Amino acid sequence: MWVLVPQAVAGKLLGALRKPLSSLWASLAPLLLWLRATLWLAAADPAQRQPAGGEPRGTGEEEEEDGSGDGPLTPTSVNYHFTRQCNYKCGFCFHTAKTSFVLPLDEAKRGLRLLKDAGMEKINFSGGEPFLQDRGQYLGELVRFCKRDLGLPSVSVVSNGSLVRERWFASYGQYLDILAISCDSFNEDVNVLIGRGQGKINHVENLHKLRRWCRDYRVAFKVNSVINRFNVDEDMREHIKELSPVRWKVFQCLIIEGENSGDGALREAERFVISKEEFQEFLDRHKEVSCLVPECNDKMKDSYLILDEYMRFLNCRKGRKDPSKSILDVGVDEAIKFSGFDEKAFLTRGGKYVWSKADLKLDW
Hints:
Organism: Molossus molossus (Pallas' mastiff bat)
CATH class: Alpha Beta
Subcellular location: Endoplasmic reticulum membrane; Lipid droplet
Number of strands: 10
CATH architecture: Alpha-Beta Barrel
Membrane topology: Peripheral membrane protein
Number of helices: 13
Largest sheet: 8 strands, parallel
Structural class: alpha/beta
InterPro entries: Aldolase_TIM (IPR013785), Elp3/MiaA/NifB-like_rSAM (IPR006638), RSAD2 (IPR026372), RSAD2/Viperin_antiviral (IPR051196), rSAM (IPR007197), rSAM_sf (IPR058240)
Helix content: 25-40%
Keywords: 4Fe-4S, Antiviral defense, Endoplasmic reticulum, Immunity, Innate immunity, Iron, Iron-sulfur, Lipid droplet, Membrane, Metal-binding, S-adenosyl-L-methionine
Strand content: 5-15%
């Protein structure tokens, strides 16, 4: 009997505490489950973890698989878009004025030296419009630094040509190997329709003036054309032969999400798009032009090394521009892992060519 008394008391005590204990367990259960998950993740292999949110695309570990080679990538040829600002409004532009940021000159030079030390042989300055910053002086200082101080074999610039002045050639032309001028049509009305026009400047007439200056100051002359809905039927053969550029780079109009298509884009380029078949028809029509270098969209997306205004490599493999971390913060070897760059595709498309004016043996 005396044994049953404590049991009865214990039963009543447990009954009285059952409800508070249930409430306490309900409160503690989520915390215990969270602790269990946290301890498991800490012990798990890093490759099994999901990348943390909030980082820019292109910096996660999963992006490293986009690389093409077994060894480290070499930034042999780099396209540095140091500004996004432009005085033209080309409807298909795929590097638009989403920021107004430009690195201080000393920081840009530091990054260029890092690239040289990592194996860079050619630098191409682009934009936006590169002559817009400080009326071309910023660009000129970078061109001179890369040729004179870094001793790069090739220094080139891509421009719409509207802001180039002869005095710039007089100051910096000796340090520049190639000047590429973007011209999509030899019909001025078409250029205006595309958005490649400004005020009283005739784009085609200006192109011929720049050609003369390049000859006078011994800078190799190049033409870039984007083939799109408004110029795909044009015959440019005689015009290109008259200009006689060292290269005529012919691009297929390219869609980049967030730049000229989709959410956050500053352009709507869908109306400019042409098919592969239409692009090929244009190439067939101009096949007799010996300096023609064609580039369809498939060739472009992973065979270029592109640096943005923050000196971040831009990975275009997924149809958008996913940035790496800046080479100024993590170095070239680390940042280039997330560039999506395919060295084999770069070489296959003829990315490495005679690009130093000292080797071109031109008839100036």
